[in-house]
Amino acid sequence: MMNLLETNIKKEQEKAQEYIKKQGLRVLVCAGTGCLACGAREVIEKFQELGASVNVMTDEDKVTTVPTGCHGFCEQGVLVSIPDLNTTYVKVKAEDVEEIFNSHIKEGKPVERLLYVDPATGKKALHTNDINFYAKQTRAALANCGKINPESLEEALAVRAYEALAKVLTENEPDKVIDEVEHSGLRGRGGGGFPTGKKWRSVARYKGGKSYVICNGDEGDPGAFMDRSVMEDDPHKLLEGMAIAAFAIGADEGYIYVRAEYPLAIERLKLAIKEATERHFLGDNIMGTDFSFKIHIKEGAGAFVCGESSALIASIEGERGMPRPKNIHMAEKGLFKRPTLLNNVETFANIPLIILNGAEWFSSMGTASSKGTKTFALTGEVNNNGLIEIPMNTTLREIIFDIGGGIRNGKKFKAVQLGGPSGGCLTEKHLDMPMDYDMLKKEGAMVGSGGLVVMNEDTCIVEVARFFMNFTQHESCGKCTPCREGTKNMLAILNKIVEGRGTMEDLDTLEELAEVVKESSLCGLGKSAPNPVLSTLKYFRDEYIAHIRDKKCPAGVCTALTTYTINQEKCKGCSKCARNCPVGAIDGVIKSPYKIDQSKCIKCGACMKGCAFGAIELS
Amino acid sequence: MTKCTVKVDFEKINEILKSYNYEKSSLITILQKVQEIYKFLPEDAITYIGEHIEGLSPATVYGVATFYAQFSLEPKGKYEIKVCDGTACHVRGSSAVLTAIKEKLNLENGKYTTSDGLFSLEIVNCLGACALAPAIVINGKVHAKMTPEAVSVIIDTLTKNESE
């Protein structure tokens, strides 16, 4: 029976590959959240319509439109990729589809105007691998994202889904699975960086009774969407990873906790679970063995603190998502007081790859203490926004300037915020540092879940610190005093500073409070809440001082410290600013200089952006 | 806050409770289902649920309902505007977009639904649409790369459509 298992999965794979082959030329249109907002639905429909009009003699003549998950290069949506022609088209609109179809697919002439143009060299990328954004990445966890239709189990099987599960079930040695994960050096991808194999072993110790596997898909970190991508684009990889974990630690039931803001992820996961259960890759007696594993979806309800393990468990149990003290380890008493293994989405997504390719393959990538690849959401003031995956020895410079294509609009790089509200910022001097867990931590930042927000000279660092503190203060559950009161007082001080009412003593109080909150809070939210303040104070203290002493915001962002005025000599009275102003704060008579009513002005800068004469001044 | 008077159909609530076996651990899912019907959680529904699940009280249910940002105890507008204020949207100017919406709809001092019930405003942490920053969502539809002017045009269009 054992060998039968592996033979069967190979058969399923061959069938699935045959199914793909019969599709002929595959046109992969991104149907991720970003591209859908840019009109992907219409592009897909147009391709389908034209594809159906082709006269087909054999399957090879067919043109099949495949709506896929996120291609990652969200900045350039709608993305259309045709692997057989090695081409990726960017910013495609429904009206462009006919030209792609007639010129490239039928006559073999690429549509040059829809190719990606490298912002640094001005060159057009004729082939997908000419695009630096993709060429410089190593996609493992995200390997299938954008390559398959996430709503089809068949397509997942064609790219080896459930082969790793078949392998571990054939070998039937749970401890060996844990050994393999341990040897790979994989560390938790949710932020903490705890060695995954070690965690599994600590739960496996309590084998025998009921135990649970939980996947933390409550990606609450603003500016991060890696986990959403795995759940939306390659759901079977996550399910397989969870099943392997359940087999290793002896669990038969699992939960995926998904944040409510990700309705598409919830929908696709539900479908994937249903399909996998029907084909016996999940559910009772998986692939004909004794092993059974059921997965439930739990929708979050919007609370950042639920990303914290004990709060997440409270939330699954139907309570307020408040953290519990960790004197009793959840490996022993977790969900419903049973042994529980909790890992992040990306951690689970790495498991099938480690089983298939071996621990050595995984540990050959990265640094001495941070193995493998990591996904990041590259956003902010960088040219190529999107989702990336890189070996952990990749430097910030390679990420921002090679993959990211540098800073937008030719501006200057200022800082990068890593790890969201729990992380810290890094500056120019850290550009050559690799994305190593421990090195980043030493510098006051963290890998975190992988949000990487790039900031340029126009970003006010103090305001960013205030923004994060506002976030954590708002999300603090209020259970423990240091976090509840500490974040409130820190926020009050930061508000004072950005409004120009700060004093130099405030900086000392801020630092003192930060230490107390960090040291004495109950859970990770509070312990890490002061990080953005501490790291910005460390690297950009002069900006804080400029706000306090000179009552100036060097970046011109803090509205209390800025005023927009119209230079009466430069203004030609064209009335454009008055029309652009969303609140009607600008008034005047055509052909004579206009004026801004300061009591109405909301300082949005719309007037300045639109003025053709440079007459609007910021002071 | 004006107390909202909505007639709660207890029959429907009962059906939901039944489909989840009156289970305590399904409370959040139950509240989500109730909110799907009314677009908010009516007080009477909260009390009813608290009285009918063993081990819970109306106060505990109220505690859970107020803990999570997704639940609203106030009715929402016909057009639900969600403004993303995640990090990427924030550094690309979501504050200006938010201020413009508040000014335009006359929403201030903790008021989040317009008096005519047409619009309601919610600030969300991150929609995960960072490359489209700043992004807003109106009734499920994502609007990318917003500016104060663009959002003002969108609201005008919706208001105009309503009055026609």
Please describe what this structure looks like:
The complex is a heterodimer of chains A (619) and B (164). With 619 residues, chain A is an alpha/beta fold. Chain A has 25 helices and 19 strands. In chain A, helix 10 packs parallel to helix 12 and helix 11 crosses helix 14. The longest helix of chain A is centred in the N-terminal third of the chain and has 20 residues. The relative contact order of chain A is 0.08. With 164 residues, chain B is an alpha+beta fold. Chain B has 2 domains: 58 residues, Arc Repressor Mutant, subunit A (Orthogonal Bundle), CATH 1.10.10; 85 residues, Glutaredoxin (3-Layer(aba) Sandwich). In chain B, 46% of the residues lie in helices and 11% in strands. Chain B is built from 7 helices and 4 strands. In chain B, strands 2-1-3-4 form a 4-stranded mixed β-sheet, with helices on one face. In chain B, helix 1 crosses helix 3 and helix 3 packs across helix 4. The longest helix of chain B is centred in the last third of the chain and has 16 residues. Chain B starts with 9 loop residues before the first helix and ends with a helix. The model of chain B has no long low-confidence stretch (mean pLDDT 90).
